[in-house]
Amino acid sequence: MGGLPGMPWDVPWPFDRTYMQLALLAAIVVGATAPLIGVFIVQKGMSLVGDGLGHVAVAGIGAALLFGTSPTWTAMAFAIVAALVIEWLRARGSATGDLALALVFYGGIAAGVVLASRSGTNTNLQPYLFGSILTATADDVWTVLALGTVIVVTIAFIGRALLAVVLDEDAARVSGIPAGALNTVLAVLTAVTVVAAMRIVGVLLVAALMVLPVATSRLLARSFRGTLFGAVAVGVVSAVLGLVAARQWALAAGGAIVLVAAALFAIAAVASGVRRAGAHAGSLLSGPH
Amino acid sequence: MLNNGNGGAVLEARGVSFRYGHDLVLDDVSFSVGRGEFAALSGPNGSGKSTLLRVLLGLLAPDDGRVELFGVAPSKLRERWRVGYVPQRLRIAPDLPATVEEVVTSGRLAKQGWWRRSRAVDRAAVDHAIDSVQLTDLRRHKLTELSGGQQQRTLIAKALASEPELLVLDEPIAGVDVDAQRLFRDSLVHLRNEHGAAVLLVSHELGAVADDLDHMIVLKRRVLFDGSPAELAATGVSLGVHHDDLPLWLEELR
């Protein structure tokens, strides 16, 4: 048995070990924050931007391995610069969204592999590509907690204005909302989320945690607010259940978390279809109005 | 009611020209909209209406000339809530999960400050805006579940929520059925009569509001007509007669 220092009670299985408690904390934070950002980027039609930034983060990891700098903060710097470039291209309308993303995708992953190979430690990319939540240290988890707090506080402050921007960017500008600045903040927060989730689900799966809970919640929610809170709930449940499954069956935690999120989407899609069919049958039975 | 001077103008364009590359889209366009005036800017497709609208709102800078909103350049206007903007319905994301109330509430941010939480006065303004377009029963419905006319009225309520002194609407009647057009017209008349706001309708479909207009501007790259509907009638063309074929008539203008 083991637990976090200062924990006054025994934590039951499967979180009875320190590494599982650290993993649980990190998973809850990432499970909540990735969909929180995802709600806005999905609405902007940029669902795959997290994937593109994840690829660039790989270049940051490669550079960190080569130059001996901090992988987290180097990946953060690379991802933020890429996020700003993508947002600049999007705002100028000078490149279609998918072309801009493709440039960033392949340039980033290629640079990451090349830089890592130069460092002679190619295999060290593995935990960042696919996540390694069960080996996260207390320092890793504190970093995730700090980044998660920044994301939640910022969204609490700008969320209403961001909704106005994703509703209609021109109308938001006319009404004096600083749409350009808010889009830039969202781009930076997306990069921060990718890096926060890097050790949990890995950069190749982070976009799934930003998008799948949002897709699930949109099927069931009756409002934007409901979609936002629903997506956070689905993200947290996916992260916790995925972690439990990883412990129980010795699975890769990142993949297990994303598979749970995908399964929840499938269940919601069926439930939504049944609800719609029921409503349709109800309207037929009640006759014309 | 017509006001072509700048004394009571809420919106004024003077000698505005705009080019896309080498194409001259707007050529020396001048007109103004006075306080409490119900004006329409019309013209055939490709006449430069949409470009002029973006210039008037400060979304595009003119190559020549100037625009003033409430006596200052659009970029210098600090009280942005004084201008309400209703975009074309089709530009709104078709899969947006937001309710009528959430959409209208986002329109209040211009007045309350985008960083501030809603206070009682803000919630009351949102309630009034929803009520004035007769959508109170549907306020918790998702925008995507509404008919075209109901979506259009939601966007009008969103613009009304900041209690604007000038409401600018971009092609608001396109694709909306006759009953919805009547409700739409009632909403605009309510805004002018109850709140004294000016309205600038940018459209080539004016049937629903033709009898309520104070001021008519016809654009085809330059201003072809700027005056009252009665003056337009004196030229041999009446909006009443051209309810249905106004777009065709506008195409023939030189």
Count of individual beta strands of chain A: 0
Question: Greatest interface and its residue counts?
Answer: A-B, 27 and 32 residues
What's the average pLDDT of chain B? 85
Rg estimate of chain A, integer Å? 20 Å
Could you list the spans of chain A in which at least 5 consecutive residues all have pLDDT below 50?
none
Strand content of chain B: 15-25%
Counting DSSP H or I runs of 4 or more residues, the number of helices of chain B is 7
What is the helical fraction of chain A, as a range of percent?
A: over 70%
Largest sheet of chain B: 6 strands, mixed
Radius of gyration of chain B: 18 Å
Strand content of chain A: under 5%
Instruction: Figure out the total of helices of chain A.
Output: 11
Helix content of chain B: 25-40%
Helix vs. strand class of chain B? alpha/beta
Give start-end ranges of low-pLDDT stretches of chain B. Answer: 1-6
Strand order in the largest sheet of chain B: 5-6-7-3-8-9
Shape, principal axes of CA atoms of chain B: globular
Distance between the termini of chain A: 66 Å
How are helices and strands ordered from N to C of chain B?
EEEHEEHHHEHEEEHH
Outline the structure in words.
The complex is a heterodimer of chains A (289) and B (254). Helices cover 78% and strands 0% of the residues of chain A. Chain A is built from eleven helices and no strands. The mean pLDDT of chain A is 86. Chain A starts with 17 loop residues before the first helix and ends with a helix. In chain A, helix 1 (18-43) packs antiparallel against helix 10 and helix 2 runs antiparallel to helix 3. Chain A has 289 residues and is mostly helical. Chain B has 254 residues and is of the alpha/beta class. In chain B, the strands form two sheets. Chain B has a six-stranded mixed sheet with strand order 5-6-7-3-8-9, sandwiched between helices. In chain B, a hairpin with a 1-residue loop joins strand 8 (215-220) and strand 9 (222-227). The two termini of chain B are 27 Å apart. Chain A binds chain B through residues 43, 45, 157-158, 160-161, 163-164, 166-168, 170-171, 173-178, 218, 221-227, and chain B through 54, 57-59, 78, 80-81, 83, 85, 87, 91-93, 95-99, 102-103, 105-107, 109-110, 114-115, 140, 142, 158-159, 162.
